[in-house]
Amino acid sequence: MLVNEMNRVAIGDMVRRTAGRVPNKAAFVDGDVELNYKQLDEKTNQFAHYLLNNGYQKGDCIATIAGNSYEHAIAFFGLAKAGMTWVPINPGISLAEKQYILEEVEATTILGDPAFLFNNLEDFKHYSLYVFGDEAPKAGTSFISTLENQSTEEPEVDIQDRDIAQIMFTSGTTGNPKGVMISHQSVFIASLANIIEIDIKPHTKATIMMPMFHCAQHTFLASFVHIGATCVVIKGFEPASLMQTVQDESISLMFALPIMYKAILFHPNREQYDLSSLDTCVYAMAPMDRSTLEKGIKEFGAKFALGTGQTEMYPATMVFKPEEQLRRFGSYWGTSSLINDTAIMDDEGNILPDGQVGEIVHRGPNVMSGYLNNDEASEQTREFNWHHTGDLGYWDEDGQMVFVDRKKDIIKTGGENVASIKVEQTILNHPSVGNAVVVGLPHERWSEAVTAFVVPAEGKELTKEEVISYCKEHLGAFQVPKDVLIVDELPMTTTGKIQKHRVRTQFQSHYMQGNPMERN
């Protein structure tokens, strides 16, 4: 008999209930491995028992440093069933950041991929290591071996809905990363809302291509497991390989970045692959340029939807729905998820009327429990009893949210405020542009100069003059970049976000005394 089973809300229960409904349904397809829901439920139970039988206590923090795999999924669902706290660490961050996170949560154990663990083996020697993969590890313990001889029955653990299920760390662009504490309730309820908002069905076959350690992919994975869909694990993005997988596996739901959809749609061999199985295409992290969106809807015959949120406000928080996609273009976030209240607020805490720009604030069960060991920062996000996102936006006349920019990314130039994202969207609509970012750089005359960094589309040639001319056609004079730098690549996070802070830091002296652009 499970403890407090009558009315509890717990992430692990999602797995058990789905296994009870569709035990033989494929839960994960990961290369040659296929795991049904009965097997997923049993293996997560076995891992939970292993932890509880080996001295780990409810509430202990256990970290993962890993890419996408069915083992990674077993690990975090097993941790949830054991009442422990999952701490996913982005493998792409620096060793110093990894060590900071491990110390901050007082972790003693790391689960992960061999490449990520053994590259820093000396630095991780004081931790218990459990290694994903089929091969015998050169150090630590095989993760799969922990499941042997353990009970397949659900462990008896008293789990409350507000218990912390996971601590996900922010990117730390202005200092050490902050640990966002997320409860069982937040993940559980957000997963149900996503099922309704995105119209996920039990027969859905979905990609798990974005990183599992990131909130965006994790929340969808939880939704897929909750409804009993099939998750197809994809390790990394390569357009031709992905198209082959969509064709072979009859993928019906794909979650990807706009730049990924663009790479697929404009791939020279696109016509060689049958992508007709696609029914729903979800994108996030950035708006999609008009040409890519129109081409995607036409060629795939699929519904496109944008989901937004943040680690602190477990996604999806707002959805720009399929029926709105071709009615309006720009940086639209759509309407609130059915579990959220959303408002626009000024700096004094006043709720603003439609059409006025202010900070986007939310309320709902998916608000974080707070930042780990940082009460001051937690309180700042909760001022006026709303969760503050740091994003600026406004409601349009049809009740659709328009995202203006991050507060910190607004460019103050010559007495005007320029939304960097508006300039980026304009540049991205140029047919020869593959990717772009716009930042404000220090300038003696303008205070901040609007500056664009542009990556040409594959096989295309592009000049600074072409981009500026295009911007002059579509933007106000004060919004046109003072300079455009054509670059081969932009600094990106492993989750696909352009690291604007790195661009600003690297080029902060671009308009120094003597630079020809000083005269613009």
Automatic annotation (TrEMBL):
Residues 16-372 form the AMP-dependent synthetase/ligase domain. Residues 422-497 form the AMP-binding enzyme C-terminal domain. One of its GO terms (molecular function) is ligase activity, forming carbon-sulfur bonds. It holds the Pfam family AMP-binding. Keywords: Ligase. PROSITE patterns: AMP_BINDING. It comes from the Bacteria. The keyword Ligase applies. Belongs to the ATP-dependent AMP-binding enzyme family. This is AMP-binding protein.
